[in-house]
Amino acid sequence: MSETPQNESTDTPDFEAMTRDIAEVPAVEVIVTVAVNLMSAAAVKLGLTEEGDKHKDLDEARKLVHALAGLLDAGATEVSSFHAAPLRDGLKSLQLAFREASLVPDEPGQGPGEKYTGPVYG
């Protein structure tokens, strides 16, 4: 029976186990999970949660929506339409919410992620 060295915390993540776990996850699942996390974070930064404006930050929301659009553009051919369609719908909803929340709306085609999706009209 070996003892844990005193300077090594038992709360330290087991990176070998984590690597094994992530190796078993299909790429589509990783892409969808990242997209959903970006969507959730963007919704919070747009003030679309129960807490409303408490965490609203349009500069941060812009970055998240733009990153989401880039991921979906790059990953569109890698995920099935079963996964891609609802993600694209969610992205468009976030883009429209951003446009509504902006005091000075971006020109069509200049909003977050519109570089990848084309202009979004409300």
Short description:
The protein is mainly alpha-helical. The protein has 5 helices and no strands. It is globular.
Walk me through the structure.
The chain is mainly alpha-helical and 122 residues long. It is 58% helix and 0% strand. The chain contains five helices and no strands. It has helices spanning 15-23, 27-45, 58-75, 81-101, 114-117. Helix 2 packs antiparallel against helix 3. The longest helix is centred in the C-terminal third of the chain and has 21 residues, at 81-101. The N and C termini lie far apart (66 Å). The model has no long low-confidence stretch (mean pLDDT 89).
Which keywords apply here?
single chain, mainly alpha, 5 helices, 0% strand
Radius of gyration: 19 Å
- Separation, N- and C-terminal Cα atoms: 66 Å
Order of helices and strands: HHHHH
Number of strands: 0
Shape: globular
Q: What is the number of helical segments per DSSP (H or I, 4+ residues)?
A: 5
Alpha-beta classification: mainly alpha
